[in-house]
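Researcher: Next entry in the queue.
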Amino acid sequence: MEFIAVLKSRKLLSLLFLGFASGLPLFLTSRTLQVWLTEAGVDLGVIGWLSLVRLPYTLKFLWSPFLDRFVPPFLGRRRGWLVLTQIGLMIAIACMAFQNPKQALNILAINALIIAFLSATQDIAGDAYRTDVLETAELGLGASTWILGYRVAILTTSSVALVLADYLPWSVIYLLMAVLMGVGIIAAFFAPEPIDQERSPDSLIDAIYLPFQEFFQRKGIIFGIVILAFILLFKFGDSLLGNMATPFLVDIGFSKKVIGTVQGGWGFVATTVGVVLGGAVLTKIGLNRALWVVGICQALSNLSYLGLSLVGKSETALLIVVSIENICAGMVASVFVAYLMSLCNQKFSATQFALLSSLMAAGNDILSAPAGELAKILGWSNFFASTIALSVPGMLLLFFVAPWSQRSLRQSEE
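Model: Structure for this entry, 414 residues:
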């Protein structure tokens, strides 16, 4: 009954739509934009360089202290920033409708960079709001609800937008996406304000320095370093696999159509199931034990690819493997986002969450960069076996950061 009551809450409904608003701009400056540029005849090399407009997502921790320090004159510290960035995004996305890639590509690139900056800033405010508003018992459901909304937005700006682009000009597509940003604005006004409002830092210097000081004072220097190492390494093996999954499928003979249908269409369904399942597992068994469960799921996902490398080209096997991979990825996303939220102090949640999520991104993107070289040296089967082995260090750190014998992170720190 408690589970159903949380699902029906105004808070969860707000997070669903705020998650949608958070995911909406992402592909409008990446994959969907790339299709538009390709159709417009833009050089492929230039399209590749335009991926740099997404740099604000990686660097967002640099200006996150501003959102902790300064409070807009309406709707409070979190919801105020959400509305400001969402209004900016609505205008910036609408401006993309008036761009012409053939005539002024530089202006389009600047426009896309502005969207990425505003979107990254919205993510800072949204992550902080979600962290502040959720009670400990709601972390699992809150994280999974947000991610569900986020993934619906991704589906909207990729699959739905591309289908509509066969019938409508790109200018109309971007105007429609701009209108959809209004969902986030309405949700921000509807969303409840966090109950326990912490006073913002007294100065910008405090907003930069104090989040680090507070984190290591609360956790202790040694335990704090262990936590950071865990965040960096927990998804290491899975990130290596993710970097090479599609090249592997192409290499063993699957067509682009089959890969796109199974990974894109069915993968979305499976991930959605995983997101919901991850939230339910966390609610049922607690954060510590949920981290163990999803860690084992990650290893199972890698093991399934090892099996496919031994079986070879089989569409049935591919469907099973993609199902396992995406269900596990959805579960990991729900639980790990909840874990990061649990580490933040409400007073500095914008800066602390931005820093922790950037560290996680570094583990996903930077440490996994040598995956291709490793696959060439080892061959596919040995490569997938190595990704399982490289998951072990992160799992071993669970003994320290999330003991199985204690359901909650808070208990393990006492």
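Model: The chain has two domains: 2-200, 207-413.
Researcher: Noted, moving on.
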